[in-house]
Write a structure and sequence with these properties.
The protein is mainly alpha-helical. About 75% of the residues lie in helices and about 5% in strands.
């Protein structure tokens, strides 16, 4: 809008200067001392005025269209970024639940599923716009989420006497994990957050 306002002011200022120039020219032509030709090319002046006015009008029209497209593109980006922020918040929530090294198994599976579905939906929505994204963005995020899912929920069956050797296990619906496994999970959460940040940058540049 600021650009359109500047163009409007420029057009008004240009027309004002043009009118002043024409009037000044007519006045000077009436001064005998300057021996200026007294016949004023009225038709030529009007043609020039119309030509300049048309040029400025077209420039304003083109600038208005470009500004409108730019604003629409910004609205699309803001809506998409808002959805990404919601996914980011879900990642933070899940990571905080893991902090105690014990999280409900059903909740963990559900949250990871929601993270995956939502981020893929965002990427597919971006593809419907004029924003250009590399396929690598989706591939990297999907791979990282899959790795996180395995780290957090893949608990192979094992005999009870060997439970102490497991980095992660489920007891009464609660996931319990070793400190080492928690660090691995935290690192994968951080990786996903950085990939999402990179996705946001790509969307803003698109």
């Amino acid at each position: 809008m600021r650009k359109a306002w500047w163009i409007t002011i420029s057009i008004i200022y240009s027309i004002f200067l043009l009118v002043i120039g024409v009037l000044l020219g007519k006045t000077i032509q009436r001064w005998p001392i300057l021996k200026v030709k007294t016949e004023v090319d009225t038709v030529g002046a009007m043609v020039s005025l119309i030509s300049i006015g048309a040029t400025l009008g077209v420039a304003y029209w083109v600038a208005s269209i470009l500004e409108s497209k730019k604003e629409n593109n910004r609205v699309e980006k803001d809506l998409i970024i808002r959805r990404i922020d919601a996914v980011y918040a879900l990642i933070e929530e899940t990571k905080n639940n893991v902090a105690a090294q014990a999280i409900d198994f059903t909740l963990a599976v559900s949250n990871i599923k929601r993270i995956s579905v939502n981020i893929i939906a965002v990427i597919e929505a971006v593809k419907k716009t004029k924003i250009t994204l590399e396929d690598l963005h989706k591939a990297n995020i999907v791979t990282a989420i899959s790795t996180l899912k395995d780290l957090l929920t893949n608990t192979p069956p094992i005999k009870e006497e060997h439970l102490a050797d497991l980095p992660i296990d489920v007891r009464e619906g609660i996931i319990h994990m070793s400190t080492e496994r928690k660090l691995q999970i935290d690192a994968e959460f951080d990786k996903i957050k950085w990939l999402i940040f990179d996705l946001e940058l790509a969307i803003n540049k698109g």
